[in-house]
Specification:
Strand order of the largest sheet: 2-1-6-7-9
Structural class: alpha/beta
Helix content: 25-40%
Strand content: 15-25%
CATH topology of the largest domain: Rossmann fold
Number of strands: 10
Order of helices and strands: HEHEEEEHHEHEEHEEH
Number of helices: 7
Shape: globular
Distance between the termini: 33 Å
Length: about 210
């Protein structure tokens, strides 16, 4: 397999092949992580004939090390805290981050749910899809949120990822699908010929 994808569309096609056993699965749903995961998830959903939706999550990052997550927020007021890390923070520090990320989560939910009912994963097979895994912090948060939303089976699927992130997430999700995993990873953009930043309008168009 070559070491780059032309764009997120091709990445989604490759991922769909690895997820083919979920084609026409009555309980499966493709959940794109905003923003870059949505076009990948849209292609997976199209090829597997399963519903597409968006999972809006906000990682709660330690104030002086934002990539280190002490928890996550999800739709419907879902809040997941990692007590081991959160226990090292002052309550005021935690509250400040939660207030900021709650406001952004609500903004994105209003924008991207497009009037659809709240996301309900009860008994569903949730295919959580992103365009790449660098640290895996946001993907890990998404897995935790999906479980809190009562998903029966959680699959994390991404075209490319750092080997360390894939290994760590394999202990959180029921299954991790990552066709291209490398130990010397760098940035996700290295693995795409076209990795342009997506606007909110690009995402809403795909979801519509």
């Amino acid at each position: 397999m070559r070491h780059t994808f032309r764009n997120r569309l091709e990445a989604g096609a490759v991922l769909a092949e690895r997820l083919s056993r979920y084609a026409d699965h009555p309980d499966a749903i493709a959940l794109g992580l905003v923003r870059g995961g949505v076009p990948v998830a849209a292609e997976v959903a199209r090829r597997l004939h399963i519903p597409l939706d968006v999972l809006v999550v906000r990682k709660l990052g330690v104030p002086w090390a934002p990539e280190v997550a002490f928890g996550a927020l999800g739709p419907g007021g879902v809040q997941v805290l990692n007590d081991e890390i959160a226990g090292r923070l002052e309550p005021g520090e935690i509250d400040l981050v939660i207030r900021h990320e709650t406001a952004e989560l609500r903004r994105r939910e209003r924008l991207f749910r497009l009037g659809r009912p709240p996301l309900d994963l009860t008994g569903r097979t949730a295919l959580i899809i992103d365009d790449g895994l660098a640290t895996g912090a946001t993907a890990g948060a998404a897995v935790a949120v999906a479980r809190t939303l009562s998903a029966a089976h959680v699959v994390l699927a991404t075209p490319v990822g750092a080997a360390s992130a894939v290994s760590r997430l394999s202990h959180l999700a029921d299954e991790v699908i990552c066709p291209l995993s490398e130990s010397d990873f760098g940035a996700v953009s290295r693995y795409y010929d076209d990795f342009h930043q997506l606007a909110d309008t690009d995402v809403t168009r795909l979801l519509a």
